[in-house]
Amino acid sequence: VGSEVTQSLSVGQHSEEGRVELRGTGMLTREFVLLQNEPNPWKEQTSIGLVLPESGTVRLTIYDVTGRIYFKGEREFSKGYQEWILGQDLLENTGVYYYQADFGSYTQTRKMVVIE
Fold this sequence. Notes:
Layout: E1 10-11, E2 17-18, E3 33-34, E4 45-52, E5 56-64, E6 69-77, E7 80-87, E8 95-103, E9 106-114
C-alpha cells in the first residue's frame, strides 16, 4: 500500500486524515499453507515454503503427470514458516512435476517445472 500511483489516504470516523496500513488477521497462523516453490521453473535447487499452525510431521510426495512417484519423505517442523529444500538429484528428468504436502488432516498440491 503506497502512494506511487495515487495518494494513499485514510479518513477516520470524525473526518480526520490518517495513514494507510495493511494488517493481517492471523489466519496464516491457524491454517496449514503450502506455498509455491521458488524459483519455478528451477534447475539445480528449489525451496518449498510451508506455514504450519503447530509443530508436527510434514509428508512430501513428488510425482509426475502420470502419477509415478519420484520422492517420498517426512520431516519434523516447528510451528510457523518453514522451508523444504530440494535438489534436482531427486528427479530423473526435466519437465512438469507435482508436489503434495500432507500435514495432519491437511493435504495441498502445487505444480513445479524442472528445466535443464
